[in-house]
Amino acid sequence: MADFQQNGNIAQFHNLRSRPTEEMIYELETFAQSRKISLILPSLFSELEGDALPNILQELKQVTYLHRIIVGLDRADEAQYRHARQFFSVLPQQTTVIWNDSPRMLQIMGRLEALGLAPQEPGKGKNVWGCMGYLISCADSSVMAIHDCDIVTYKREMLDRLVYPVANPTFPYQLSKGFYPRVGNNKLNGRVTRLLVSPLLIALKRTIGDRDYIDYLRAFRYPLSGEMALRTGLLPDLRIPSDWGLEIGVLSEAWRNLGPRQVCQVEIADQYDHKHQDLSAEDASQGLSRMSTDICKAIYRKLAADGTVFTPHVFRTLKATYYRSALDLLEAYWADAKMNGLTIDRHAEEQSIEMFGENITRAGQLFIENPQETPFIPTWNRVHSADPTLLSDFRAAVAADQEEYGSD
Questions:
Q1: Fewer CB within 10 Å: C terminus or N terminus of the chain?
Q2: What domain range includes position 334?
Q3: Residue 278 CB-density burial (10 A; 0-12 exposed, 13-18 middle, 19+ buried)
């Protein structure tokens, strides 16, 4: 994807392959002397047993500019937490494993529930939010990066390139978003971005007219990527969605708080592949079906907050416009894959489009029936205002878990 195109909405940084990686690493090491850089890894315990995470750790062991790594561990019992401590102990950086299911952490969640501030559902959003709270309590980092733990094509250069725009003190960027081609096993992947988000944004523009927010989202080459870096001053007031709208939600928060001149996207890999979700066409509460509904609702909520009026008629028109747009894009994706020796199952792709189309109207119906729905987890500023000791108690609970349970 080595080009130099700028879309005029947000800055794009390309890999022009004109600079040795060692030079960028040297600069990052220099920046990190006065602007510490931390990494958040939201992880299910099951990912410790997969093929991707061991390789990720081998790559991270080589990263010399990282000050701290925070692992949010979900779906783990005591023995699994002990194993995770041992598993991540190979990292040379300061590494903290937060056992989200420990008795102490459940007690912290109970305090939040009593205040009406607890996350509404478990998942990646809650995990990331908790890790951000821990990092805020440490008060020692200027830059925070995050990426998933299931990237089977992971290379340390992904992190180098991701953090550089926000770590460089001469740059104005507060948020950096990674992009890459989703290719794996000789297939063109990235179904939700290709077949839902891209044609949905085209259809929204045709249906409700020009909106700066739509142009902003369309400027991202891979808006659903889980790889992003932020300056930590943003974290206390950042609203994290608890559902599958996490990535769109963070971009929307950047739009609300920063504006496009402080947001950029950066090419971090020539090839990227990770764990794939099932389509789950028969179960709207699972897989890509649930994900697509949550993403649609996240976009509708933001547009409504900016003054767009939605009605059932609008959503019916939107579905029809989306369907035509998605089929047109599918034709282009098929030709692109063919030209590059990749495969696309056109029947499966059209089945995905049909399901996404149904979920566009389903999400619209849910939005109209419950327009006051607030899936956002409260900001850490609000939590601190309601309970000024919770953040320090949270950090103490993590330390106590490490002390009591140790490792294998």
A1: C
A2: 9-402
A3: exposed
pLDDT tens, residue by residue, 306-353: 899 999 999 999 999 999 999 999 999 999 999 999 999 999 999 999
Establish if 407 belongs to a structural domain.
no
Q: How far apart are the first and last CA of the chain?
A: 45
Rounded CA separation 228/222 (Å): 11
Q: Residues 50, 150: contact at Cβ < 8 Å?
A: yes
Annotate 130-139 with b (16+ C-beta within 10 A) or e (fewer). Answer: bbbbbbbbbe
User: Residue 95 corresponds to which tokens in the numbers above?
Assistant: 């590494």
Domain tally, the chain: 1
Whether residue 4 lies inside any domain: the answer is no
Q: 63-76, pLDDT tens digit by residue?
A: 999 999 999 999 99
DSSP 8-state assignment for residue 151: B
Running along the chain, 408 residues long, what does each successive block of 10 average in pLDDT? Answer: 81 92 97 98 96 97 97 97 97 98 97 94 91 97 96 96 98 97 88 96 96 95 95 94 84 90 95 72 74 92 92 96 98 96 94 96 93 82 98 98 81
Instruction: Please give the Cα distance from 126 to 74 (Å, whole number).
Output: 10
